[in-house]
Design a protein that fits this description.
The complex is a heterotrimer of chains A (298), B (375) and C (679). By secondary structure, chain A is an all-alpha fold. Chain A contains 15 helices and no strands. The two termini of chain C are 28 Å apart. Classes of the chains: A mainly alpha (298), B alpha+beta (375), C alpha+beta (679).
Chain lengths: 298, 375, 679
């Protein structure tokens, strides 16, 4: 694969031409290396800091320096005395359930929109486009009330949250649909002539070819609940037992709690970030493939 | 028994575009019929309607006497080979071919036998364990055929199967398809835009343009007696020469004035024209390049032309000539009997004379474009 | 379960009618008339009629020196003003006063209620009695000495007795010198009875309304029937599913019939009830009462406005579904008749089921996702839009409170809403400010990330740069980390005593810590910081996307450009940029509108701060300088009074703005390629 950007990015002022193509290219490249190194440092710094701060035990409030004076695991052990484990389990369960259910729903929707041509298809897509323009939070107010009547809030926030995440997830079909669009329709047709009904076409032919997008959808669906603040906050409504990690940790940074909980926040953040990041990095190439392949089809 | 009958078949899309108008055709059992025509003529659409991949907007489709308009593809007992082969990438060749049999719950040992049979006929036995991406174009082509073959379907549909192959392979595969046809002994419906394929493969050819059938006939028929200008120009390579001419009466019969020369017509033509009460009129005269005789000297009824381009094809020359009235004429001239002197005279700017007998003349009405004799 | 067009187009002959169409229509009208008559008869003669209560007036006329007692009753200007301003009104506006009367007169059948009979209309609790009594003064009496007591009650005789009792009791208080000191009494006060000032009025059933409704439904059914041919199709207009059942399509027929049973059952049992309450959103309040004075409090729940709104709207949608299903039912009858006329077979139940995994598979696949979307996105949105036309707010929330429609009031007041306190801005002014910032933010957030991300992607992609994978991986890793951690931590980094400030002070570049997010006088500092941090968040993702697209640009475009003499900048603007914009056009648009609603970044970074004094404050929460419309909306719903109706109005306005932008830009986008091109 040819790198299309080679020529566009080389920035040689005219007067350097007499130095020769190779030399000027080296200068350009060096500048880019410097730039990339700086960028990498800037991007990684906050996380390095968080990790460092999580080991600081000499004080629990925010300080102006980075490297701990006294190292220790106290912040981590303290986590287990707080509500953190409960939040963690909550979030994990939500993530797992959402991961599976959301993937099923999204794939059903995007496969249908990609493969089938039916009268309501374009109106449906336009409709979902318009629906997406509404601020999602408005729905929370009444959903909260309904869920409360069903008993799925506060301490029982997790099932309620899963329901909210999963129910409307069909609207996020865009990337998967783009992916399905790239599978030639003639495969479907050949299978149908061979005797498969539409359902068999889906799971015998299309799904085996869709591993990247399935993993992409599973991955993004799993990661979602870990970072959600608004909905979790609404549904748990200040009941600690129902919160997820985002809401809980956010609470630790409020004015009255931050002095005692700042370092614990860092420790909690590390415990949340590490597994998720590791999972992500293992499946990274599927994520990249999903984004670059399906996200921006023209 | 696997006859196919299309009656008043139409295809109209949602935006009111009519892709196929009123298609009527009866295909006999075990016949090899070719739909041929330029891009957008509706041949693929018609094929897909027969397959069940497109809804039929109007008319009746019968396979073996049974109306199948509402049947799903899998219930129509047809097999199809696609232009881009459409092999299942994640399955081995064996499994690709076995797929349809497994869906029908055929026992594995029977599958084994049938798949290997087909593979042997097609010469792909050594590839059975490979995946499609490890095969060349021609090999994939055979696998696609194998997949269709193994079903023993009533009707075998092929949608431009050779279009993605290079010229040499195409010729080879053409011959193999003819052999295949003999082995399979079933009804074939074949779609192509290449008239050579149509002519060599088909028992009958259906020539289509803009959704209409222009002519249906055996290769010989459409070659010898094209019913209109389009068919005449479409069949045959290089394309038939079309010249502006005039039909006149000469004595008891008729003649054609073309390029300052009067060519009398023969008895059969005169009879047909007389029956139709043909009046003198402007016509378009069509003569195939291979039917024109090349003379190096002027004779009666010979038309003088200047040589423009000389294409050396090996056993013959294709000469591009310009008439005195600036008409472009192509002539085919076998080289084997030419003297050296003659060969050297065939260069740019030199003069040449062409003539042709009455029986190779095709007369077309300039407005209706129909043939005055055969239309 | 639908049939293809070709069934209709093959020119099947419809079975002919025996009588001309006009006759059928006339017969239908006759049937409608009959229905109306029946309904009228039922309403007038069978259904128990309801009447509103009568109002009976009793008067207490003060004599002589008791005028001075009236000093205590006087309002401003010498006239009694609704008895508001003194000890007497302290008494007559509280429950115990009425509780005594209830107990004395036995208005509450305490023994029956204790035995378990639910509270009925005729039971008067102290609270209900208080609602039924209106105290006032006689305007005609300019001396201002006549107090009027209006009692509203179903039975005028009872009203008279109660009024009398009330007058006596009030008189007792006024003349009790131990309670109200004053000059000695010479003449006793008089109690007079004016009589009924409001006759009972018939309130229900509203015959006219019911007749019209019955007429419309009947018209719909019978007219449809008139247009059907064949008795099977006619019967199906009344008994849904009959057309299918009588032709052997058991599965479909049963489903239709079952639907009819459920629909009719629901409407009669619950639907009508909800619809009746919908216009008022409930009038019956929840009651707390005691069976006797000082006794245990019992609660009976009245109407719940929220439920009424919710179920009322759901019922309306259900009616829509009924009409649609009915239409399908009739249509299937017609199609079935046509198919039969052609001599073909109808689809059996098994065939229907089979087609659900084949040609109708899309319906099977879409059933769950679409239902989820309708229930959890569409319905809430419709509901919240409706809330904008009510006064639903925190204090009026909960099972015990009623809110009501206010029509376009909220919108009319948009321009004039001002929060308490002088110098505060109006709603519109604040809205405008926040909208402006939201647009600016969305613009910069989208495009800085876009171009910088593209720039980084191009840099990494350049030929000769090694370790491409490593650079990309480092950046991609930051996508994995949950956003809230990054944002929260970074926001703390910018705190007054945070790391950034410490660093800057230690380097000697500044002396005092900069309040990035807290400095009210430098709002743009906060805003710019937010944009910059957002770049940090967004670049890795944009880099990924643009990398993929960049790799798709054919290399020969650049080669031929180079040969033609284009310099790198020209290559970028003439080849790279147009291609990128073309492909990512739709993405940029959705990114822009997405950023307008980007809650997380703003809220977690700043919470909307810094908060400027003087901004419109909704329910005690002020709008901040970095607030987006959506974070402001969130605060409105969270703070103090929970002014949901304001939040709804803001939400609708946000939607309108975003939709306008989207429509404007979308139609101008050149990249509406046909998807079929890719297949």
């Amino acid at each position: 694969m040819s790198n299309a950007m080679t020529n566009a990015a080389s920035s040689q002022p005219k007067m350097k031409q007499h130095m020769g193509l190779k030399a000027s290219r080296t200068i350009g490249n060096t500048m880019i290396y410097v730039l990339l190194t700086v960028i990498s440092i800037i991007w990684l710094i906050p996380f390095v800091f968080i990790v460092l701060q999580s080991f600081r035990v000499e004080s629990t409030h925010q300080v102006g320096y980075v490297i701990p004076q006294v190292w220790g695991l106290k912040n981590y052990t303290e986590l287990f005395n707080s509500n953190f484990p409960r939040w963690y389990v909550n979030t994990f369960i939500s993530a797992l359930a959402t991961c599976i259910l959301q993937t099923i729903i999204v794939l059903c929707m995007s496969y249908t929109l990609s493969r089938f041509r039916f009268k309501m298809r374009k109106p449906l897509m336009k409709f979902m486009l318009i629906l997406g323009l509404f601020p999602g939070m408005l729905s929370m107010i009444i959903l909260y009330r309904v869920l409360k009547d069903l008993g799925l809030t506060q301490a029982n926030a997790v099932p309620g949250l899963i329901l909210v995440y999963v129910a409307s997830s069909g609207m996020g079909y865009y990337v998967s649909k783009g992916f399905f669009d790239t599978i030639p329709k003639s495969l479907d047709e050949a299978a149908r002539i061979d005797g498969a009904n539409r359902a068999q076409v889906l799971y015998k032919i299309i799904l085996p070819l869709s591993k990247p997008i399935v993993i992409y959808t599973l991955l993004t669906a799993f990661m979602g609940p870990w970072g959600d603040y608004v909905f979790a906050r609404y549904i748990s409504n200040n009941t600690a037992a129902g919160m997820n990690v985002a809401v809980g940790l956010y609470g630790w940074l409020s004015q009255d709690q931050i002095d005692k909980k700042y370092t614990m926040f860092c420790a909690g953040g590390v415990l949340v970030a590490v597994p998720v990041t590791v999972l992500f990095m293992c499946l990274q190439r599927y994520y990249v493939e999903g984004v670059t392949g399906g996200a921006v089809k023209g | 028994m696997a006859s196919v009958k299309l009656t008043n078949i139409k295809k109209i899309y949602d935006n009111n575009v009519t892709a196929v108008h009123d298609f009527n055709l009866e295909i006999a059992d075990k016949e090899f019929v070719v739909f041929v025509g330029p891009s957008g003529c509706g041949k693929s659409t018609t094929l897909r309607m027969i397959a069940g991949l497109e809804d039929i907007s109007g008319g009746t489709l019968e396979i073996d006497g049974q109306v199948v308009n509402d049947l799903q593809p899998k219930d129509r007992d047809i097999a199809m080979v696609f232009q881009n082969y459409a092999l299942y990438p994640h399955m081995t060749v064996y499994n690709n071919i076995a797929f349809s049999l497994r869906l029908k719950k055929v026992p594995e040992d029977e599958i084994f036998e049938r798949v290997n049979n087909a593979a042997q006929i097609l010469g792909i036995t050594e590839y059975l364990n490979r995946k499609p991406r490890a095969l060349s174009g021609g090999q994939r082509q055979r696998v696609a055929i194998g997949r269709a073959m193994v079903r023993n379907a009533k009707v075998f549909l092929m949608d431009e199967p050779l279009s993605n192959l290079d010229a040499k392979l195409r010729n080879q595969m053409r011959a193999e398809i003819i052999l295949l046809r003999q082995k399979l002994d079933t009804t074939f419906i074949y779609v192509t835009h290449d008239q050579t394929e149509a002519m060599t493969l088909g028992d009958r050819i259906v020539i289509m343009k803009d959704g209409f059938i222009e002519q249906v006939g055996t290769p010989q028929e459409v070659f010898d007696t094209p019913v209109n200008l389009f068919v005449a120009g479409f069949i045959g390579s290089p394309q038939m020469n079309f010249l502006k001419a005039r039909l006149v009466q000469e004595g008891e019969g008729y003649a054609v004035d073309v390029l300052d020369v009067r060519m009398p017509l023969n008895a059969e033509q005169n009879e047909v024209l007389a029956r139709k009460n043909a009046k003198p009129q402007d016509i378009i005269l069509g003569v195939r390049p291979e039917h024109m005789a090349v003379l190096f000297e002027q004779t009666e009824n010979a038309i003088e032309c200047t040589i423009n381009v000389n294409e050396m094809m090996g056993s013959e020359l294709h000469l591009h000539l310009t008439s005195a009235h600036d008409d472009k004429i192509i002539v085919r001239l076998p080289t084997v009997d030419l003297t050296n002197e003659q060969r050297h005279s065939l260069s740019f700017g030199n003069k040449l004379f062409i003539t042709f007998p009455a029986k190779v003349m095709h007369l077309f009405d300039p407005e209706t474009e129909r043939s005055l004799i055969d239309g | 379960m639908s049939m293809t067009n070709q069934d209709i187009e093959t020119g099947a002959r419809t079975p002919q009618r025996k009588l001309p169409l006009v006759v059928h229509i006339l017969l239908a009208q006759a049937a409608v008339l009959l229905c109306c008559l029946i309904t009228w008869y039922l309403c007038e003669n069978v259904v128990p009629k309801q009447y509103s209560d009568a109002t009976y007036r009793t008067e207490l006329v003060m004599m002589d020196n008791n005028y001075n007692a009236m000093g205590y009753l006087k309002g401003e200007g010498g006239k009694i003003a609704a008895l508001q301003y003194n000890k007497v009104s302290d008494v007559i506006t509280k429950k115990p006063f009425y509780q005594e009367i209830v107990d004395e007169m036995g208005l509450l059948h305490a023994d029956e209620l204790q035995a378990g009979r639910p509270l009925g209309e005729q039971d008067l609790t102290a609270g209900r009695l208080m609602d039924r009594v209106k105290w006032g003064y006689d305007e005609a009496d300019t001396t201002g000495r006549t107090i009027t007591i209006d009692v509203t009650y179903a039975d005028p005789a009872e009203a008279e007795i109660i009024g009398n009792r009330l007058a006596e009791k009030l008189n007792g208080i006024l003349t009790d010198k131990s309670k109200l000191p004053g000059p000695p009494i010479n003449q006793p006060n008089r109690i007079e009875h004016t009589g009924l000032i409001q006759e009972p009025v018939r309130t229900g059933p509203n015959t006219l309304v019911w007749v019209i409704i019955a007429g419309l439904i009947a018209e719909g059914i019978f007219l449809t029937m008139a247009f059907q041919t064949g008795w099977k199709n006619k019967v199906t207009c009344i008994l849904m599913g009959f057309a299918n059942l009588s032709r052997g399509q058991v599965l479909r027929g049963l489903l239709f019939f079952l639907f009819e049973v459920v629909a009719v059952g629901y409407m009669i049992g619950w639907g009508v009830g909800w619809l009746q309450k919908l216009p008022t959103l409930g009038t019956v309040k929840t009651e707390h009462y005691a069976l006797k004075a000082g006794g245990q409090e019992i609660v009976t729940y009245g109407d719940d406005s929220f439920k009424i709104l919710l179920y009322g709207v759901l019922t309306i949608f259900f009616i829509g579904a009924i009409i649609y299903t009915y239409y399908q039912n009739v249509k299937q009858g017609r199609l079935a008749a046509k198919i039969e006329a052609r001599g073909k077979k109808l689809k059996s139940g098994r065939e229907d089921l089979r087609s659900l995994v084949d040609d109708q598979f899309h319906k099977t696949l879409l059933a769950l996702p679409v239902t989820g979307i309708i229930l959890f996105t569409v319905m809430p949105i419709i509901f919240m839009v409706l809330v904008a036309f009510t006064n639903y707010s925190g204090p009026l929330d909960g099972k015990e409170n009623l809110f009501s429609w206010v029509g376009l009031d909220n919108f009319n007041q948009l321009l004039t809403w001002t929060s308490a306190g002088s110098g505060n801005k109006t709603f519109m002014a604040t809205f405008g400010e926040i909208l402006a910032w939201t647009l600016i933010w969305a613009f910069f957030a989208t495009f800085t990330n876009y171009f910088l991300g593209m720039f980084v992607a191009m840099a990494i992609n350049k030929k000769g740069i090694k370790l491409k994978k490593m650079w990309r991986t480092i950046l991609v890793m930051t996508i994995a980390i949950p956003q809230f951690i990054s944002l929260l931590y970074v926001s703390k980094m910018f705190d007054k005593n945070g790391i950034i400030n410490s660093f800057l002070i230690n380097m000697g570049w500044i002396k005092d810590p900069i309040e990035f997010f807290g400095d009210v006088s430098r709002p743009w500092l906060a805003r710019v910081t937010v944009i910059v941090i957002n770049i940090w968040i967004g670049i890795p993702y944009l880099m990924l996307i643009t990398t993929g697209i960049l790799m798709n640009i054919p290399a020969d475009l650049y080669e031929s450009a180079r040969i033609d003499g284009a310099n790198p900048w020209q290559q970028y603007t003439r080849i790279t940029l147009p291609y990128m914009l073309f492909v990512t056009g739709p993405y940029l648009l959705t990114s822009f509108t997405g950023n307008m609603n980007n809650f997380n970044v703003i809220y977690l970074l700043t919470g909307g701060a810094p908060t400027k004094l003087g901004a419109y404050s909704a329910g005690g929460v002020s709008a901040g300088q970095t607030d987006l419309l959506i974070t402001w909306l969130f605060n409105i719903t969270q703070g103090g009074d929970h002014l949901y109706y304001q939040a709804s109005v803001v939400g609708i306005l946000v939607f309108v703005v975003v939709a306008l932008i989207t429509l404007l830009v979308y139609s101008r986008l050149p990249s509406n390629k046909n998807e079929e091109d890719f297949q």
